Amino acid sequence: MQLTTAVDVLLLFTSLYFISSSSSSPLFPNEALPTKSGYLPVNPATGSAIFYTFYEAQTPTSPLAETPLLIWLQGGPGCSSMIGNFFELGPWRVNSSQSQNVEDLKLEPNSGSWNRIFGLLFLDSPIGTGFSFAASNEEIPRDQLSVAKHLFIAINGFLESDPLFKNRPLYVTGESYAGKYVPAIGYYILKKNLQLPESKRVNLQGVAIGDGLTDPVIQVNTHALNAYFSGLINERQKNEMEKVQWRAVKLVKMGNWSAARDARIEILQLLQSMTGLPNLYDYSKKVPYQTYLVTRLMNIGEVKKALRAKESIVFDECSDVVGDALHEDVMKSVKHMVEFLVKNSKVLLYQGYFDLRDGPVSTEAWVKTMKWEGIEKFLMAERKVWRVNEELAGWVQKWGSLSNVVLFGAGHLVPADQPLNSQAMIEDWVLQKGSFDNSQ
């Protein structure tokens, strides 16, 4: 699910010198430095490790030892969490301007950062993604259990690196293909906790999934109907798309995972061809998300050094090698993991209104098939109008431990499109305030 076309490596490196040369101040100011960053080993024998950047809460409202920690995982499969960090919800965002036909990159403070009152940890997962290092392609995970095992080792390594981290309430968040990673690591943590003494348990309190691919066989069956009722295709085109959707579902039932994944790609390509949209991540936009700016930023030596990343790694926003490794995983469901999580923690699902790939219709379709004693009450719960600073932000539906939010004016990358509203959402959900108040 690469968000922009791959940047030509030769052109990239010939232009990097000019990107920051026109500025007298460093491209990466000291105030933009992470609190901690570097590598968390997942296999000391081979050296394979997950790259991380951590930003402590800017203005915590509780003692640090009690301040919630958020983990962010990007999708893909194989896309770097540096997209989330420097394009969406981190404390500094990359932007660009034109000067004498040269594109100048600059970092700007993000008032909608998710580390305003929480600690925020970005992980490049699976290994082989972004700045993370895989000693061999064979070590790259092929399924969600392998992804979760690596993440569990990395998260434990991080929590044990500072006594202040160990007992802080932990929330795992992410978007897109992390609609699988987030439930997988959440499920793994809770199952592992049952086998561990209390002093060794991870204090997981909840998970949040943004525009997630979680139950693909149900979600893939919604594209034609969603596009039709959005006025983007006509009935003949809807029928044509539905034939490919049924084929994808049939292939899943046969256990032909690779062909099912190819059928899903065919559906999305068909939809893009029929609509003529520049991208399906946000049908309100006339140009794709400019995530290529993150690739340019991350390949600058000064930036790699500041982040304590391996300077020999040529950064790409999304790894084809990791994507290929997880090829047969794409159409497999993790809904049963969400069902376990909603019974034993709290779950937030959120989607951008304009997302045609994994948006509101796609999510609602699989949620209503959940096996959970509270599902009927959730489906009957009022969908409330949600406002931030007296302006329409979206809609919230909540019952018990499950919340679902649709954010107005946002596409697939919700924090990029609605930084302040997404910040308000995550803060109120974690703290159980406003629309997420359990007493209401």
Question: What distinguishing features does this structure have?
Answer:
440 residues; alpha/beta; Rossmann fold; 2 domains; ten-stranded mixed β-sheet; 12 strands; 19% strand
Brief summary:
The protein is of the alpha/beta class. It has 16 helices and twelve strands.
Layout of secondary structure:
Elements: H1 9-21, E1 36-43, E2 48-55, E3 69-73, H2 82-89, E4 92-99, E5 102-109, E6 119-123, H3 144-159, E7 170-175, H4 178-193, E8 204-210, H5 216-219, H6 223-229, H7 235-254, H8 257-275, H9 292-298, H10 301-307, H11 320-325, H12 335-344, E9 346-352, H13 360-367, H14 375-380, E10 383-388, E11 391-399, E12 402-407, H15 414-417, H16 419-431
Parallel strand pairs: 3-6, 3-7, 7-8, 8-9, 9-12
Antiparallel strand pairs: 1-2, 2-6, 4-5, 10-11, 11-12
Helix pairs in contact: 3-4, 4-12, 6-7, 7-8
Mean pLDDT level: 92
Number of domains: 2
Report strand %: 15-25%
Shape: globular
Under CATH, the topology of the largest domain can be stated as Rossmann fold
Question: What's the architecture of the largest domain, going by CATH?
Answer: 3-Layer(aba) Sandwich
* Order of SSEs: HEEEHEEEHEHEHHHHHHHHEHHEEEHH
Descriptive notes:
This protein has 2 domains: 9-214 and 285-436, Alpha/Beta hydrolase fold, catalytic domain (Rossmann fold), CATH 3.40.50; 219-275, no CATH class. β7 (170-175), α4 (178-193) and β8 form a beta-alpha-beta unit. The longest helix has 20 residues, at 235-254. Mean pLDDT is 92; it is low at 5-24. The protein has 440 residues and is α/β, with parallel strands linked by helices. It has helices at 9-21, 82-89, 144-159, 178-193, 216-219, 223-229, 235-254, 257-275, 292-298, 301-307, 320-325, 335-344, 360-367, 375-380, 414-417, 419-431, and strands at residues 36-43, 48-55, 69-73, 92-99, 102-109, 119-123, 170-175, 204-210, 346-352, 383-388, 391-399, 402-407. The strands form 2 sheets. A 10-stranded mixed sheet has the order 1-2-6-3-7-8-9-12-11-10, sandwiched between helices. The chain has a two-stranded antiparallel ribbon with strand order 4-5. The chain is globular, with a radius of gyration of 21 Å. α4 packs across α12 and α7 (235-254) runs antiparallel to α8 (257-275). The protein is 37% helix and 19% strand. It is built from 16 helices and 12 strands.
